[in-house]
Amino acid sequence: MEFEESGIGEECGVFGCVAAGEWPTQLEVAQILSLGLVALQHRGQESAGFVTCNGASPPTYTTHKGMGLVSTAFPPEALQKLRYGNLGICHTRYSTTGISELQNCQPFVVDTLHGKIAVAHNGELVNAHALRKKVMRHGVGLSTSSDSELITQLLALTPPMEELDAPDWVARIKNLMMETPTSYSLLVMFKDVIYAVRDPYGNRPLCIGRLVPISKLHSSGDGEEDTEGWVVSSESCSFQSIGARYYREVLPGEIVQISRHGIKTLSVVPRPEGDLPAFCIFEYVYFARPDSIFEGQMVYTVRQRCGRQLAIEAPTDADVVSTVPESATPAALGYAQQSGLPYIEVLCKNRYVGRTFIQPNTRLRQLGVAKKFGALTDNFAGKRVVLIDDSIVRGNTISPIIKLLKEAGATEVHIRVASPPIRYPCYMGINIPTKEELIANKPEFQDIAGYIGADSVKYLSVEGLVSAVQEGITSIQNDKMISSSNKSSKRVGHCTACLTGKYPVELEW
């Protein structure tokens, strides 16, 4: 919960759709894009943008962007304008680089030698400063402060070996991937195809779904003859609401072409020899929606395992287990199951205050805290409470909650945190406070229980978190499409840089 109040947020979400079969399609691509993006709203609430294309030759691109929630940015008349698209991509934004203005809203559309491309990006480039200089040396001006415009302009540059009359988008994308190792998941739309791209370290998520008739949605058959279209998304949680089945993840380093004829792996760019993948472990801890699937396992299940591991590492004498609603609920249930203590609710959340972490302004974030919770006194008066949270970042949010519970009759409040202490900033797409602001780096951390008013405070260890995450990872799907030279794509690894200070790549400034 404290992630919300501390201004920590995931950078953004991307979503794309391609209608299968004959065009013009009967599939409502604009509506699918809208519903898909609404399901990714937790990944960013500053702005949203859509680009659709008819896929003709020459193609017609239609763009609409707006500030705020998807429902605000895209009234019915805006979706009506986008309705003639046979394919499209969209984006919802939380800024980690670039200020919160409409000009930084994605997707970006630029003219190239061979026509327009549209690009949507989730992540943050670790060597953006050097790349900006390189683009400008080619005489290209940048109109925004966003990494995503930089990526778009790099893709627009012609590779040395490309024929003048035949754009080689695989070569262009691979050239970009050689220029910057991480962090990005990309959707690149050109004419009648979408290229789905994940950086070689797989730091940010990306997965593919298959649109099927509603009557076939829950059947066991996998016949692609029923396919009505293909969708690609930052998270699989967006698939159910649009009638799509989860198909598979885009693998680290993979370039996938999505067209009306189906999906095809065009290339897999390897990591340097010996490097493991570096999928952001905090997608599991907090950022992703609980019903999303990563690496063959549901996020909710991983959070439950984190709670069970926490109960093994940090038991305590108590009467009940509860949670700070709502992101830590699976961990609290896991803690209760492992410890044998009953799980009850001790806090009632006012759902209409809003998720304050998405507000970039500190004052706006702080205003949302005061009236967010009410105490369910009858459930815990006279009892010792173990309160599970997903984080303690600055320590200024959990303290008033502890005070509220004690004033309402809790005899003891023991805090158990289902993730390790955050000690380092993230430079790969997560908005984390400076090192000096993090409570784990302050003198108060030596007596954090006394600082926040708890009877005890314990965190899950880094080893415990990694173990809980990796315990349920299944083998990578569609193994047959990966050549023997790219078997390293199947190895398991996660980025824990904000916990350990060990970044997967060398940072360039």
Structure description:
The chain is an alpha+beta fold and 509 residues long. It contains 15 helices and 25 strands. It has helices at residues 2-5, 29-38, 70-73, 76-81, 128-137, 147-156, 169-179, 282-287, 299-313, 329-339, 362-367, 398-407, 448-452, 462-470, 497-500; strands spanning 9-10, 12-19, 47-53, 61-67, 87-93, 108-112, 115-123, 184-190, 193-198, 207-211, 229-233, 244-249, 254-259, 262-268, 279-280, 293-294, 297-298, 320-323, 347-349, 373-375, 384-389, 412-417, 430-431, 456-459, 494-495. The strands form seven sheets. A seven-stranded antiparallel sheet has the order 4-3-5-2-11-10-12. Strands 6-7-8-9-13-14 form a six-stranded antiparallel sheet, with helices on one face. The chain has a four-stranded parallel sheet with strand order 18-21-22-24. A hairpin with a 2-residue loop joins strand 6 (108-112) and strand 7 (115-123). Helix 5 (128-137) packs across helix 6 (147-156) and helix 9 (299-313) packs antiparallel against helix 14 (462-470). It is globular, with a radius of gyration of 23 Å. 51% of the residues are buried. Mean pLDDT is 88; it is low at 355-360, 366-370 and 475-485.
